[in-house]
Each structure stands twice: as C-alpha cells, then as structure tokens.
Amino acid sequence: MAVGPRRWGGMWDALPDAARSIVKELIIHGPQSRTALARTLHLSTGSLTRLTKPLVDAGLLVEGEVVHDPVNGRPTRPLDVAAAEHRFLGLKLTGDRVHAVVTDLRAGVIAGRDEPITDHSPEAVCRQARGLLDALAVGPPVGAGITLGGNNRASAGVGGERLVDAPYLGWEQVELKPLMERALGVPCAVENDVAALAHQHHWFGPGRGLRDFALVTIGAGIGYALIVHDHLVAASEADLGMFAHLVLRSGGPMCPEGHRGCAAAYLSSGSIEAAAALGLRREVGYDEVLRLAAAGDQVCLTLVREAAHALGRLIALVATVSMVKTVVLAGEGVELARLAKDDLDRALAADRRDVPGSVNVVVEADDFREWARGGAVVAIQSFVTGSD
Ligand SMILES: [Zn+2]
Q1: Separation between Cα atoms, residue 344 and residue 316, nearest integer Å
Q2: 160: which of 66, 97, 307, 353 is 20 to 30 A away, CA to CA?
Q3: How far is the CA of 254 from the centre of ligand 1 (A)?
C-alpha cells in the first residue's frame, strides 16, 4: 500500500501558533513559571493557561515542583517540556559513513553509532539508516532529521518533494525525504549539514538567545551559515561555494580550483595536508600536521599559523559585511584555531581597525557527532513548527 507524506505530530494541527511559541520558549530557555512565560510571549495569563492545558494533557508539557514565582513571589509550579519522553533521530551522511544519534527534545544525546556506507544507492542508505536506528535500541523516535553536504534543491519532484544532489554519494535529484520516511516509519526532514549545525547552535549552543550570529566550519570543506533576526539566511550551494573560495591574499597557496590565496587554499584539510607534504617531503594526514605543529615542527607550525591568520581575516570579513557580533567556529579542523589563536586574533584585530572585542569568536569542540546532532535539531524544529 502506498504511504503518503508523514506529518509532524497530529495534535499540533488543532493548536494555534502561540502554543508552538510556548513549547519553543521552554525547549530553548528551560522551565519557567506561567507568569514569566506570559510576560516573555506577550500573552495574558488566562490565554497562557488555556493554551498550555492541552499540551499538559497530551504529555508534552509537565509541571515541576512548587517554587516561589520570581515575578510575583507567589507559589507556582513551573512549566517544562517532557524532554526525556520525546526522542529524535539525527543522521549525517558523508561520502563513506553514516553517523546516527538519538537525542531528547533538548538535543541531549542519548545514544550514537556510526558505520561505513557499503552500498551507496539511496534505497540502501535508507535501509542502513533503519538498521542503525534498530541497533540503537531506544524505541521509535518522534521524527528524524537527515543532513548532508549536498544541495537540497527547492525545485519539486513527484508529489512536491524537494530533490537532493549529493555528488560525493553519486546522487542526483534523489527524493530522499519520502524514501527515508518509508524506511524509518517516522516523519523526516532533510537539510544541508552546515545549516543544520547553525540551527543547533542557535537553539542549544553558543548562539542561544542571540538574534544574529554567523557560523564558519572548517574541515575537508569550508562552510558558512548566517542567522539574522532569528532566521537562517537561505543560501544555495553556489553561494556557499563562493564563500569557500573568497580570496584572502592574492598570490597565496593554490586550491584545486586554481585560485591563489582563497579560504579553501589556506584552511581546508586537503590543502593543509598537501602543503605539509611538500614541506616534509612525505605524505602526512591532517591530524598529524596538527600534532607536529603543537610539538613545534617548523613546517607544520608555519602552515597552521598561516591558516589561523587567514581564518582571522575571513572572520573579520564575515563580521564586517554581515554586521554580526558573534562568529562560531566549528568542524573537524577547529583545532588549528586553538593552536594559533594569537595569529587569528592579530589578523582579526588588524582587519577590524584594532577595535578590541568587536567580534566574539567562539571555538566549538571538534566532535564529528555534532553533525548528526544537527540532524536531530532539524527534526526537533520541524516537530515544534509543524513544517519541514
Ligand atoms: Zn579556491
């Protein structure tokens, strides 16, 4: 029997947007009294009580122990989301591995697992995702979010589904969402991996509470995402490609596309490995380059310092053009920013006219599982907003 598109939480359909705002506020900022919530969301306490009752009845919201209300001092039972009772699957697909995590409603990781991709056909990858979910043995999730570096085209395929291009998986115009929904049996959302990571930082990371910030990721590729006025700025693969190949210094090292001194030429792990191999006269992996740099090897230290300097210039450019005050650095290459932070800071300050503290740079942990967690966050957001 054919199965139609799955929907996010049937109970949502009858509820107004204000109910979604309450859930979102509690997910992001934690438990609050009804008076505090009403004040934050510009609702009357009567409206708030009316809106939250069905959510409490449905088990999505719970009441905590009695405390004194910080607003009026009266005894009250703060509201919270039933975070542990709602689980979400996050998947990140690379060219050779599928990474999976199951999280609670606040994106806290409950379990994780990853495997090499053995068969790259979309159907086989979806079957493998189902196998991973079963192996994690945490029961059926509310929904799943799948992230990948390919283009998630806005153009519609059969049934209006968005089409996915992922050259590194050999995928062209794949209707991933319905395929994955059939395999997993739950609603799914598909998102670009860097965009998903930005959503994660916005709701659960250093971007929480910020209306504007930028995310720069460094690793095999250079990624960029921009949150402005609480919303992610939509970007095409072509836009993001432009960012990765911004020329930071003419006459610098060359990237595989023939640009001299672009961001990818200085910062991508492949470029750094190639330059290190030239200096060391042997093949060398990215992790070893960082280890050697930390130990004082002149070839690797020079490369890491040049990369950090380029990163400082890139951050200055982002902050100046987009006018954000916070730039989050993430991805498997962030260690170079820690190793040569002085070089990064000097380049950033010089390009920001030596105004100290004009940009807050937050360096995140180098943990590949964060990409899969970004997928779970996309699923959580789809659940709360009812769209994907
Ligand atoms: Zn380039």
Answers
A1: 10
A2: 97
A3: 7
pTM for the model stands at 0.92
Highest mean pLDDT among 38-42, 190-194, 373-377: 373-377
148 C-alpha to ligand 1 centroid (Å): 21
**How far is it, in rounded angstroms, from Cα 196 to Cα 91?**
11
Q: What is the mean pLDDT of the chain?
A: 91
**Secondary structure class of 274 (helix, strand, coil):** helix
**How many A from CA of 147 to the centre of ligand 1?**
24
Give the pLDDT of residue 243: 93
pLDDT of residue 163: 86
Q: For residue 257, report the distance from its CA to the centre of ligand 1, in Å.
A: 5
Query: For residue 227, what are its two tokens?
Result: 């949150």
Contact 252, 266 (CB under 8 A): yes
Q: How far is the CA of 145 from the centre of ligand 1 (A)?
A: 31
C-alpha 243 – ligand 1 centre gap (Å): 9
Taking a C-beta distance cutoff of 8 angstroms, is the pair 238, 259 a contact?
A: no
Kind and range of the H or E run holding 228 = strand 222-228
Mean pLDDT of 185-194: 94
Q: Write the pLDDT tens digit of every residue in 261-303.
A: 999 999 999 999 999 999 999 999 999 999 999 999 999 999 9
Residue 294's pLDDT is 96
Is the pLDDT at 111 greater than 80, yes or no? yes
CA of 381 to the centre of ligand 1 (A): 34
Q: Please calculate the CA angle 219-220-226 and round it to the nearest 5 degrees.
A: 60
User: What are all long-range contacts of 198-202, with beta carbons under 8 Å and residues at least 24 apart?
Assistant: 198/225, 198/226, 198/227, 198/232, 199/232, 199/374, 199/377, 199/378, 199/381, 200/107, 200/370, 200/373, 200/374, 200/377, 201/328, 201/330, 201/364, 202/227, 202/230, 202/232
308 with 337: CB under 8 angstroms?
A: yes
* 332 CA to centre of ligand 1 in angstroms: 19
Neighbours of ion ligand 1 (CB under 5 A): 245, 255, 257, 259, 262, 264
Which of 1-10, 78-87, 270-279 is the least confident region?
1-10
